[in-house]
Amino acid sequence: MQRIGVLTSGGDAPGMNAAIRAVVRKALYHGLEVLGIKRGFSGFIEADIEPLNAWSVADIVHRGGTMLRTARCEKFKTPEGRRIAKENVDRFGIQGLVVIGGGGSFHGAAIFNREFGLPVMCLPGTIDNDISGTDYSIGFDTAVNTVVEAINKIRDTATSHERTFVVEVMGRDTGFIALTAGLAGGAESIIIPERPFSLEEICARLERNYRKGTSHSIIVVAEGAASGVEIGREIKKRTGFDTKVTILGHLQRGGSPTAFDRVLASMLGAKAVEWLMQGESNKMAGYVAGQVVSVDLERVLNRRKNINLALYDLAGILSI
Ligand code: F6P
After folding, report:
1. Beta strands in 41-156 (DSSP E)
2. Which of 170, 176, 223, 252 to mutate to test the pocket of ligand 1 (most atoms within 8 A of CB)?
3. Which of 1, 144, 218, 273 is least surrounded, with the fewest CB atoms within 10 Å of its CB?
4. Which long-range contacts (CB under 8 A, 24 or more apart) does 77-82 make?
5. How far is the CA of 10 from the centre of ligand 1 (A)?
6. Tally of domains in the chain
7. C-beta 127 within 6 A of ligand 1
């Protein structure tokens, strides 16, 4: 193998740049050439592909976003789109591909491998942490810290005004961000898609705490469980408490990656290159119990990642 490609696809996540840097520098270390494919799989179709050297990836380890840009490419989902992409793979002499992204991107990589035999290695890169076969995906830790910082700030104003705040966070159809950030931020209630919730209970808890002297509360809602606006409206209606809603939205995707995400991205990126060189394909580099592990892509794509419900119960106990 002499030349590999790297791309980022789907929603961006802090630490993707650190992963690109690791892929490029590890490959160069072993004498491989690296091409960067721009805007996910669109770059393959549009032949938007450029050589990367050690300097191309200087000064990016601390930056959020992705220097390669990203996209969710509809055309790549069609056989015609993939045929054009394959032509460019051949034209640019790409012999192996590292895909950094989430489940949708892995799906694209797996199909491409199946149809044309191009060796692919995937790195989990999404703030949602919804990828099975890895304890953490690149970007999750940063997003959680961003949410916790926001909760801290909201708590200041919630306390001063004696208000109830509903904070809606991302996570697609999962509650990993909500649960982790809710526990770390001391939320009074956490609403996630993986557990049924009762507004009656949440309101009863708010009223109980109010009677005990707590006149402010934070409720974290995962976007996949309910609309923060509706939860806020309902709480206000049922309790009469001054209730405000904050939707954190896309700010959760930005910002400088935490040290954890940078180290994770560096380890996974380097391993992916190593495995490609060893002739491996159709794998994801995951991180389980402190070790980098190789997981079959099929397995990753066919399993839903379980959330730690013990953590959910613990959050309930600790918030009284
Ligand atoms: O997958 C990352 C994510 O930020 C999800 O948490 C969210 O549901 C979705 O992407 C938002 O996508 P878009 O950026 O296309 O609005």
Report:
1. 49-52, 96-101, 120-124
2. 170
3. 1
4. 77/108, 81/41, 81/45, 82/111, 82/112, 82/115, 82/116
5. 8
6. 2
7. yes
Tokens 């801290």 found at: 152
132-190 tens-digit pLDDT: 999 999 999 999 999 999 999 999 999 999 999 999 999 999 999 999 999 999 999 99
Give phi and psi for 54, each to the nearest 5.
-60, -35
- Residues forming the active site: 128
Residue count of the chain: 320
**Chain CA centroid to CA 83, Å:** 29
Residue whose Cα lies nearest atom 8 of ligand 1: it is 172
Q: Is 171 in the pocket of ligand 1 (CB under 6 A)?
A: yes
Verify that 133 and 265 share a domain, yes or no: yes
- How do beta strands 96-101 and 120-124 pair? parallel
Residue 26 lies in a domain: yes
User: Residue 284: which domain range?
Assistant: 3-139+257-302
